[in-house]
# Entry
Amino acid sequence: MRLKIILTLSVIAGVILAWDLHRIFLQVPDEANQGAIFRIIYFHVPAAITSFTGFYLAMFSSIGYLMKKDLRLDSVAASINEVSLAFASITLCTGSIWGRIIWGIWWTWDPRLTSFFVCWLIYVGYFMLRRAVDDPTARARLSAVLSIFACVDIVLVWKSIEWFRTQHPGPVLEIRGGGGMAPGMEAPLWWNFLAFLMLATVLILIRTRQETMKLEIDALRRQAHAF
Amino acid sequence: MRFLRQTLAIAAKDLRSEIRGKEAVNASVSFALVILLLFSFAFDLEPEQIRDIAGGLLWLIFAFAGTLILNRSFARELVNDCLDTLLASPVSGAQLFFGKCLANYVLIIIVECISLPVFAIFYNVRLPQRLALLFLVMLLGTWGITVIGTLFSAMTVNLRLRELMLPTLIYPMLIPALVGAIELSRVLINGGPLAENMIWFRILVAFNVIFTILALALVEIVLVG
# Structure
């Protein structure tokens, strides 16, 4: 059943991505001021939203673990955070490439970039913590607490664009009150987001299966040592 | 009332132990002096420029030196299984955490009160006339450092790389509080208008309130499970 879901989602995500790539590169015209590089937004923004969505889902899974003490929920939280961290890395890299072309610099310490980098560092810390704890129950407990703390920091990241006047482009999407993007140009972005979300789900399903198997192997190994 | 009494008992125990041994405070003050020395090699600035970055330098010193105290907070209970005994005693996790928070808070404030005049002398920075406001910023910023630091000290107490893990985990988490405190300190030392920078004050207060509530809610899980 799991394999069927993974295969179906992969195929749908692949088709949407292929169709969207065709639209982004061959149908959508260049942006008036930025030229061709503006197309990076179709990957930058969906990756950012996917990572944020993932971090929050992981927090709910972590809360679920703390309430039910079911290690499978910890595996789900860790898998979601891992995939989200990968998407956050994509966001940082694509943003940096865009900044090099438009601002002339790879990086600037503007509050939004800084906040996103801080967020990324916190989740790197999350995985460092997981590696440092051997006992599965203690690892699950501590990383669940850290996941909840990290999500509070994400709120600061998300709100910082309103709190500070920054070098970062203001909201351009209709949904955030921006209204700076033509509907024809905005549609592929949301389709890309859907495809990224499906891709993330596939990766999470695969990683969760691996984590669960790892737990089973560890338990069997402990049993073997006990005899 | 009972909550407060037991909390204060934990804080008093930690402070008494520190006053007798003076391990963490001595190390922390010495470390602050070393950082002050190193900054003198890193920068060669005019007096006006120093005033501009004084807030940042001060809070870096406070954060680095504070970590030494926070690292010791729960680690000192590992000897003779004192942490297990404390957890088995009729004191809740929240009381234990809050008591340790108060003790750490007092110790870090002491280190800051020593570092601040030394910094002013070494770098020829005239302390602001609004010294009471700077002290208020120190109290607010330090509470943020203390709450996060004490909780993460409890989280990392049994880890192999405890000394390494604590700063790696808490510094990114502390950024909003540190940025707020740095900006407010800079404005106060520079003599700039405070009214335009109230956003930083609000961020600092919000950070403290949110993380204090979160820490109190989750500390039982961290300590006991």
Summary: The CA atoms of residues 47 and 62 of chain B lie 21 Å apart. Chain B touches chain A through 23 residues (CB under 8 Å). The longest helix of chain B spans residues 93-122.
